[in-house]
Amino acid sequence: MKIMIGTLAALLASTGAWAQTTEPTAPQPAPAPATTEEATTGEAAPADIIVTASRRSQSIQDVSIAVTAVGSDRLVGNQVNNLQDLQTIVPAVNFGSDFNQAKIFIRGVGANTSTTGSSTGVALHVDGAYVARAEAQLTSLFDVERVEVLRGPQGTLYGRNAVGGSINIITAKPTRDFDGYARLSYGNYNALVGELAIGGPIAPGIQFRVAGKTENRDGFGENPVSGKDVDDLNRRMIRGQLKFDIAPDVDLLLSSEYFRQDDSSGAVHYLRASFPGVARLAPLGVGGYATNPRDLASEDQPGTSSKSLAFTGTLRVGLTDQLSLTNIANYREFKSSLFQDLDLSAVQNGFTVNGQPSTIQERRIDSKQYSNELQFTYATRFLNAVVGAYYFNERQRPIDSVGFRRRSGLPNTPAILARDGIPLDLAYQLCGYEPGSTTGGTAAVTPKRVCTRSNLGTEAYALFGQAVVDFGLFNEGMAGISLKLGGRFSHEKVTSENPGIVIRYNAAAPNGALPTLNPTAAGTHRERTFKDFTPEVGLQWEPSRDLLVYYTYSEGFKAGSGENASGSTTIVDPETVKNHEVGVKASLMDRRLTVNVAGYSYKLDGLQLNKTISGGPTGYTTIFQNAARTSAKGVELEVFARPVDTLRFSGGLSYTDSKFKDYVTIDPLNPANVSGGTPYNAVTNPDPTAFGAPGGGNLQLAGNRTRNTPKWAWNVHGEADLPFAMPDSGKLTLQGDVSHKSRVYFSEFEREIESARAYTFVDAALGYSSGDGHIRAQLWVKNLFDVDRASSTFALATGRLIGVTYLPPRTFGASIGYSF
Predict the structure, then answer these.
(1) Which of 54-63, 399-408, 580-589, 685-694 has the lowest mean pLDDT?
(2) Which of 731, 723, 735, 721 has the alpha carbon at shortest distance from 776?
């Protein structure tokens, strides 16, 4: 509570916060207003969408950035409740998840690790505040004004680096008029979603807004052992905002958001053995797997318990007609507990049960982050400039444990620890427990077999800026031709500690165990400092208000980071990217047709990748390393057409050729790389699957495709206002969506088993809106043809098998809402 009060006080005392929806004080050339038909008949044309991707309010057609904006009407009409749902609307985005982490990829760049600690390649911002943890990015969308998806490196306009792109969530803000809405949706799997928002003035110069949402749904599968649901939903969230109009050119926005989740969503399911036919590396759960792919058999119910709390303060000060000051102060707490059985089976493993290592995993995350961004914006007819300073500090204390359950542990654990000179209280502390709060209440159950209590820190400073100079400043005849210059200096200090305990069993050893491993905080303490300067330069030509042509060269930087693995001293090197992009944005036929095209190529050095391999003292070994080089080239096309006012089409096409140029690594699914059994010997043990057999060791993966990136992706969206017998009473709108992705590989080895083959999803809806716009109702279906596809796979080294998460099956339902 003291931390929360102190943080709120700091926000109030801060010079404020930048909000992405904040408009500069200086007047901006406004796009032509939307016609009545455009404003009331559904999806707006891109030319009528105002975005703040370049840190000032502009029509999306005037921004020399590859950006897609999805407004609230489209989000509601397509039942978009989370970031994963965006990938059917924005083809350039691919989304997966495992270990309760969001895996967001844009143009082949994204989150390539399943250990907590590292930054994501695609940055997520909520009203300008960066959300660091991939686990915290799985929260739901509610009361959102729009979502902006920026593609390519971002750094000269934003507080936090992003090598792949940025997803910016802009929430609805308090207004001077009293307004609000209520929505309720019910569908199959007993899905019940309720959302409510209300806001308006509460005193002269003070406005408020409060919004909340609940999501409940039965599971897409079940645990046949317990009979409980798997992949269900139980989420609650609320946001409150207060806006103070302090003076004509000064306003302050205070915002607080809370999210809570308790369910078994995102479960990892059994797909296949990692080493079929290799007896010495048989999976640990044989005989206990669920028969239905969407079910998950486990003696312990898988589950996720998460909560996040965020405070943001935003102050805007208009210093002159051209110059404004903005600043962000944000504090976020995130806590999460993930429970799962890494053998994905009902078989109970334990040294004293079947001689196998126990596989029950618990991952607990406790993260606190603070950021502050100070920014000056200068805007005139021929010059727009942004200069900013950014500070970010995050401290993570994750606890990873794999361990004993019920009577599957070692009954002589205290004696083993005493023999090895390790205090029992220390073992409890490393596992995140105290003796009085252990599972079962006995030392026979805890401490766990493997425990890692990490301490990971990041402290970052940055100076950044960008200026767009219209040559009309020097010669009126050159108006419309602009030069863009920007740069960013980054300084980051990363610290890492991974103390832990590993209890190893061997029936022939004294007390039934080998010497216990106990890496210490001091022994694993590492620090690294990273500095980098990333420039940006571009040219843009706007011969008319309906045509923009641009070229941009930009660089991106992501600092190295540590990992939470027992005894690890790894802090990997940074990622850097050099990107070229050309684009054309055109509005034709009196804005009834909009065509945007972007082409790009980049080279990325030091891609940070994580994998695990079976074997070693814990039964698994984490590998966190830099791939040498990757490169990509691609084309993106977005089209909007409104041939008549009652008919609207939009769509997108993304081609991405993203490959490794030089990556030497070992294959976790090659038995020759996994220790155990009798080592290979050409005479006495010529088994080609034996540890150390020929064919093991490093592979060169140059030419292989990168993770989570389909070569082709496209979507088509259509809306038609149907003839209605009583037009004054409202309208009916039929809409449909078709989205397609070619094969997606989830590892760098291009294996079919670790991929999702090409698929096409079809969504449809029939909506009604009343003549006064207050009532909206809809019948909808998503994934109409019930296509089953993986959203990610992961080689679970502990269980020696491949796990899989799935995209949602067919869902359908009805929604009704009232707004005022």
Answers:
(1) 399-408
(2) 731
Structural element, H or E, at residue 521: helix 521-524
Cα(61)–Cα(65) distance, integer angstroms: 9
Whether residue 536 contacts residue 553, with contact meaning beta carbons closer than 8 Å, is answered with yes
pLDDT tens digits, 113-123: 877 777 888 99
Residue 614 one-letter amino acid:
S
The tokens of 687 are what?
A: 């088994």
Strand partners, 243: 207, 253
DSSP state of 635: E
**Cβ partners under 8 Å of residue 569, min gap 6:** 496, 498, 524, 526
**Where in the sequence of the chain do the CATH 2.40.170.20 domains occur?**
2-434+441-663+701-819
Q: Which residue type is seen at 637? A: L
Interval 762-793: pLDDT, tens = 999 999 999 888 999 999 999 999 999 999 99
What is the rounded distance in angstroms from the CA atom of residue 342 to the CA atom of residue 800? 9
DSSP symbols for 248-263: TTEEEEEEEEEEEEEE
Measure Cα distances from 678 to 281, 372, 618, 619 in Å: 12, 57, 19, 17
Residue 1 is predicted with a pLDDT of 40
CB 140 within 8 A of CB 341: no
Retrieve residue 785's tokens: 């043809």
State whether residue 156 is helix, strand or coil. Answer: coil
Phi/psi of residue 458, each to 5°?
Answer: -135, 130
- pLDDT per residue over 42-76, tens digit each? 677 776 777 776 777 788 888 899 999 999 999 99
Q: How far apart are CA 126 and CA 122, in angstroms?
A: 13
**790 near 783, Cβ under 8 Å?**
no
Three-state DSSP at 579 gives strand
Two tokens, residue 669: 């699914």
- CA-closest candidate to residue 123, choices 575, 672, 796: 575
Q: What is the CATH number of domain 2-434+441-663+701-819?
A: 2.40.170.20
